[in-house]
Structures are given as C-alpha cells and as structure tokens.
C-alpha cells in the first residue's frame, strides 16, 4: 500500500511516517514545503491512502491561514476526485475549528471541503487538541515542548496563568489510532461517521504541567523518580527525555568510597524504595547490622559472596554462598543480623534494592555482628 502524507516534515508526520515504515507493508509518499501544489495530482495517483497533516497555525500574516489550510486542502480534494479510484483520507483538524478565529475558521473550511468527498471516499476527520511528544518544535505552539526545551537548557519558564487548563493528547496515541485506520479503514468507513476523537485526552493546569516536568528534570540530582510508567506521566517522561542532545544523555552519580570498596545510589522512588550497588575487594565483609522493618534484595553481579545471618532472638545461624553466574537474589529478613563477604579472588559487585529510601533520622539500621 502506498500512503501519501502531506506536511511530511511536521512533528506529527515524522512520528507517523516512522510507524508506517515499521509495518513493512506501506510505502510512504511525501508532500512537504518543497513541493508545488501541482505535484499533488501525481502523488495522489500513486497513493492508496492519504494522511492530510499539512497546515499552518503560526503564519507571518493572517492570509496564510487560508492558503496553508484551505487552499492546499481544496487542491488535494481535487486531485483525489480526479484520481479515478477510492482513496481514504485522514485529516488532522483542530478543536479550534469549533471557535471563531482565523485559524479555526480556516480549519473548518478545510473540513467542509473534505466532507464533500465523503460520498465516494472514506473520510476521517480528527479535531485534535494540543498534541505533544518527541520531535515537537519548542517555542512554537506546544507548551510541553517549550517547557521541556527550557528546563533542559536552564531557561526560566514563563507562565502567565498557572491555573489555566490545557487538553493534551500524546503523539503515540494519535499515531496508534491512525495506524489502526490504515489496517481497518474498510470496516471503519461502514459506520458513516466522519469525525473521530483520540483517547485519552489529558486535562491539567499549566502549573501542574510545569511541576511534573520540573520533577522529571530534578530526578537527575535528587535521584528520586516520580511514577513514570503509565498514562500521562509515562508520556511526559518520554517527551522530556527526547529533548536531550547527545552530550546531555548521561549524568554522574556520587560515589562513596572507603577501604571496603565503593557504594553508589542509582535510583530512588517515593514509595517503592531505592536501587544502588556496592563493591568489595577480596576478603572484605560488608554489612553487620539488622533491621526491624526495612528489607533488602541483593544480586551478585560479579564475584562470589558468602551471606551470613543470625536471628536476634533465637541466635539461629544461617549462611549461603552465591556466585554471579547463578543470578540468585538473597533477601534480608527483619530481625536477622546479616553481612556479606567477598570469598572470591576478584572485586565483587552487588546490586542492592531497599524497600525504602534511606532516612538518616530513622535509618532502621542497627549495627550488630553476625
């Protein structure tokens, strides 16, 4: 299938084109600012499906709204009508089409023109709110992109009204919806519905948005990460990281070194503990304490370790030898004092997870030999 994408150098188009190429069943035909309107006839005749993503929303003058949004759409529709085949078309409109302003009015005119095709061609119109995600241009029309760029580059955020609400959709959700249409457009066209929505839509205040992104920025120094695995937080986290340049991909962690070896904290969470690692030279023992409630998981990554445990009430003793090639997790048990000794010849490296962030005021770590 050949898929024509207009506005192919735009933020949404770049993400869509990448996904289309992943399908291995689509050849992408591109239309962008380097093309003349006259090119549309040739490109449309080559195509089996059209994503009309080109548009103008920050013109030099108001007239460009009409030429960039309506005139281009009108020419595209004319090319589709003269193609002598049925071509589904997806149009990325805007929620502004419901409002009385030059941009919204030009989008509404473009919608009406595309709807004239609906008797012969499947038509899918999406009135999108603010779309955010990787490759969105900062200081243009996305607060998310601008905030990410500014925070990464130490530029103060400008917020005129922190309580103002914004409606956001994530570019991956938009693209996923578009891909489903490519794969199932015949079934979707049967319901004769021409207007579609992307779900989920995230609504939050500008102040809340700035706070979330600032927390992501600060996680490199505090080591505390917010929950970033689902929904909006996952999308914002991925988007923020996408604005790093290669020289900004890495950051240093503080190393605590003493004669026993090195201890490094890697990642902390507010409610699911923290990750770290430590090293120990041959014959070195680390630990020698017990906890009332704190628990830990140890994973030997390099070397050979002997874990020793003693029950603080019964004096029951237990020991276990673990080598790195077994990938065995050893847990500390509340009420048992414990230590770990490097019984190999090389430096031992051990990953450690504790179920809580270390609190110097209430460490729950009482020194006691095994």
SSE map:
Blueprint: E1 2-6, H1 11-23, E2 27-31, H2 39-46, E3 49-52, H3 63-81, E4 89-94, H4 102-115, E5 123-128, E6 130-132, H5 143-152, E7 165-170, H6 171-189, E8 195-196, E9 202-205, H7 206-222, E10 224-225, H8 231-241, E11 255-258, E12 261-269, E13 274-280, E14 285-290, E15 296-302, E16 304-311, E17 317-323, E18 329-332, E19 336-342, E20 348-354, E21 366-367
Description:
The chain has 370 residues and is α/β, with parallel strands linked by helices. Among the domains are: 2-128, 3-Layer(aba) Sandwich (Rossmann fold); 255-367, Jelly Rolls (Sandwich). Helix content is 30%, strand content 30%. Strands 10, 11, 12, 13, 15, 18 and 20 form a seven-stranded mixed beta sheet that branches. α2 (39-46) packs across α3. The longest helix has 19 residues, at 63-81. It is elongated, with a radius of gyration of 29 Å. It starts with a strand and ends with a strand. The mean pLDDT is 95.
Radius of gyration: 29 Å
What value does the average pLDDT take?
95
Here the CATH topology of the domain at 2-128 equals Rossmann fold
> Which runs of at least 5 residues are low in confidence (pLDDT < 50)?
none
Enumerate how many helices there are, as a single number.
Answer: 8
CATH class categorisation of the domain at 2-128: Alpha Beta
Q: Mind summarizing the main beta sheet?
A: 7 strands, mixed
Order of helices and strands: EHEHEHEHEEHEHEEHEHEEEEEEEEEEE
End-to-end span in angstroms? 69 Å
- Name the shape in a single word: elongated
Instruction: Write down how many β-strands occur, each being a DSSP E stretch of 2 or more residues.
Output: 21
Tell me the structural class: alpha/beta
CATH superfamily of the domain at 2-128: NAD(P)-binding Rossmann-like Domain
If classified by CATH, what would the architecture of the domain at 2-128 be? 3-Layer(aba) Sandwich
Helix fraction bin: 25-40%
Estimate the strand proportion: 25-35%
